[in-house]
């Protein structure tokens, strides 16, 4: 992967805290939901409920598609990422604690409040490993994308 493109991907991951992620329902239809995420390099982490439809979908099929982007008032300023990836449940307690710590760092506004993050035992934690990343950057031309295989 080109270093400049990798820096662009990491910058986009740093700029945002939520993503839309699609999993596959039992009937084959995609289900898209919005989740908060954290990342460690190109590896992403997100949480969901133990008995959520998303967790059930991923137990059957670990393939996901996701997008990370934001709204802009100028069409030619649109930037974002889309990924084809694999999402695996985190079972190692140390990695689970790391994922929750990374997520808390993304939301420093929550630090002083009485709200606490769930423990790894109270949620499903998923590690998302990209297979392909598409970097969208309209500044390079209308609908311009750079595709990266991981």
From TrEMBL:
A Pfam family matched in the record: PNPOx_N
SUPFAM superfamilies the record matches: FMN-binding split barrel (SSF50475)
UniProt cross-references to InterPro entries, sorted A to Z: F420H2_bilvrd_red/Heme_oxyg, Pyridox_Oxase_N, Split_barrel_FMN-bd
Ranges of residues in domain Pyridoxamine 5'-phosphate oxidase N-terminal: 6-134
A cellular-component GO term for this protein: cytosol
Assigned keywords, A-Z: Oxidoreductase
GO terms for MF: coenzyme F420 binding; oxidoreductase activity, acting on the CH-CH group of donors
Keyword Oxidoreductase: yes
Coiled-coil blocks: none
Protein name as it appears in the record: Pyridoxamine 5'-phosphate oxidase family protein
Organism annotation: Azohydromonas caseinilytica
